[in-house]
Amino acid sequence: MVKNLFIPIISQEKKKEENPGSVEFQVFNFTNKIRRLTSHLELHRKDYLSQRGLRKILGKRQRLLSYLSKKKNGIRYKNLINQLDIRESQIC
């Protein structure tokens, strides 16, 4: 049920973003996966394999955001953070 909420957002993002390998698009996809796994874990608290997968995806997203903020462009980083409504990284 939660998966259906993200399909229109992904289709809009795919039209706007031409390169699915870009950092912004990858962070967008990881954020959607994180939201789906979080809602799953609210129902299934003892699903430890999903918890591990969630931690791995969080780490990947954190590394991409760190790359974007340091090596690419800080403005793109700020826009992406605001667009996806996620917190700014405390560890830089």
Automatic annotation (TrEMBL):
The gene is rps15. The keyword Chloroplast applies. Part of the 30S ribosomal subunit. GO terms for cellular component: chloroplast; ribonucleoprotein complex; ribosome. One of its GO terms (molecular function) is structural constituent of ribosome. Pfam families: Ribosomal_S15. InterPro entries: Ribosomal_uS15, Ribosomal_uS15_bac-type, uS15_NS1_RNA-bd_sf. Keywords: Chloroplast, Plastid, Ribonucleoprotein, Ribosomal protein. It comes from Sophora tonkinensis. It is found in: Plastid, Chloroplast. Belongs to the universal ribosomal protein uS15 family. This is Small ribosomal subunit protein uS15c. GO terms for biological process: translation. The lineage of its organism: Eukaryota, Viridiplantae, Streptophyta, Embryophyta, Tracheophyta.
